[in-house]
Design a protein that fits this description.
The protein has about 375 residues and is an alpha/beta fold. It contains 13 helices and 13 strands. The two termini are about 20 Å apart.
Length: about 375
């Protein structure tokens, strides 16, 4: 049967036009390394990498492209921040919606004197800036929040939280795993010092490439998590202090960057607002239809205000794992079931430990696919 892909919260599919070709071309036409090879092909790839940095700096309204650092994914980026910034201890405030990419490193850091407080969110995933402020202590050094819940899609008021951080002289870090390439994010306007992104979700690029953007003031306080060759200052046994080399040891994922470059070019041409409107139109239609089924509960916000195209369902009369299995078996509908690597969020929403069935839509999905999904849900409940 025809498959229906509703798991874009895990990774987007289909990828942006031109992504596979760009990756293949790099490997077929000249899989050279940068900062190492002193020949024309290597310089051309280095130019592509610089162009990609500039695209990302423009997308996130950063001051300069030298603060764009490539990593394998958003999880690596968050570890760079947490372990490079809290290496000597201190307190950080997070939200009750955080992914394990934040919570597990924080638990590891407890042994080195770091501490954290999770500000509460309500059952819709709403986070109030005043609740963040109430968690600030004398030894608080930073605030780190997810921009949108990967469980229920509710967004966080990052501009208001950024203003709060400025008032208190705190570093502000944002996890944009579910919003990069989907919502307009202005680092300067929101006072963001550290923005972690991944290339394979809303940015419509390949897996294995992500990164972060860092402010100059945070860079002065942060140590590189990984040390090694950068192709620069090779006479020194000390890591370079200049950006982005300070955080980019070893050979980068150049095919991944080539794919991301193609995806960003597509987003520039298409417009992320236009793509987001298509996704939210489909989300509104799904919510309208699903709310007619009493045997299924929508977890989190039931409207399309202040959210992204991620919806979690709790099946009242059936085990959620069985429901997800039957959706795939009956109609080829691919979802994600469980705790979504975010047990803290599920505790906030009252869905721990059983989790939910998550639906995440792309601009490539169609209304008739939603109709088929709703019909199948009626059938299995």
């Amino acid at each position: 049967m025809e498959k229906i892909y509703f798991d874009n919260g895990s990774t987007s599919w289909p990828k942006a036009p031109g992504v596979p070709e760009a990756m293949a071309d790099l490997l077929l036409e000249g899989g050279f390394n940068i900062n190492r090879g002193n020949y024309e092909g290597a310089y051309e790839i280095e130019g592509m990498v610089l162009d990609t940095r500039e695209q990302l700096a423009k997308l996130f309204h950063a001051r300069h492209s030298k603060g764009v650092v490539f990593t394998p994914n958003v999880t690596y980026s968050l570890n760079f921040f947490l372990k490079g910034f809290l290496r000597s201890g201190g307190h950080i405030v997070v939200s009750g919606m955080e992914h394990n990419a934040v919570m597990r490193p924080l638990e590891q850091l407890k042994g080195s004197g770091a501490a954290y407080t999770a500000a509460p969110v309500d059952r819709e995933g709403n986070l109030k800036p005043e609740d963040i402020e109430a968690c600030i202590r004398k030894d608080t050094r930073a605030v780190l929040v997810t921009h949108a819940s990967n469980v229920c899609g509710t967004t966080t008021p990052i501009q208001e939280i950024g203003e709060l951080c400025v008032r208190h002289g705190l570093i502000f870090a944002v996890d944009t795993a579910q919003t990069a390439g989907t919502l307009d994010i202005d680092m300067e306007k929101c006072g963001i010092d550290f923005l972690a992104f991944t290339g394979h979700k809303g940015l419509l690029g390949p897996q294995g490439i992500g990164g972060f953007l860092i402010s100059e003031r945070l860079d002065e306080e942060m140590s590189p998590l990984i040390a090694g060759g950068t192709g620069s200052l090779s006479d020194s046994l000390i890591m370079p202090e200049s950006l982005p080399d300070k955080y980019e040891s070893g050979t980068m994922n150049l095919p991944g960057i080539a794919g991301l470059h193609a995806a960003l070019t597509y987003l520039e041409q298409e417009g992320i607002q236009k793509i987001h409107r298509r996704k939210m139109k489909l989300t509104a239609y799904f919510l309208e239809r699903i709310l007619e089924i009493p045997e299924v509960r929508v977890v989190g916000r039931k409207t399309c205000e202040d959210r992204v195209a991620v919806v979690s369902l709790d099946f009242r009369t059936k085990d959620n794992a069985v429901a997800a299995f039957e959706l795939e078996q009956e109609a080829g509908i691919m979802t994600r079931v469980g705790l979504h690597c975010a047990p803290a969020a599920h505790r906030s929403f009252g869905t721990f430990p059983k989790g939910t069935v998550r639906f995440a839509f792309s601009a490539a999905n169609r209304e008739e696919e939603v109709d088929r999904c709703i019909e199948t849900i009626y059938k299995i409940v």
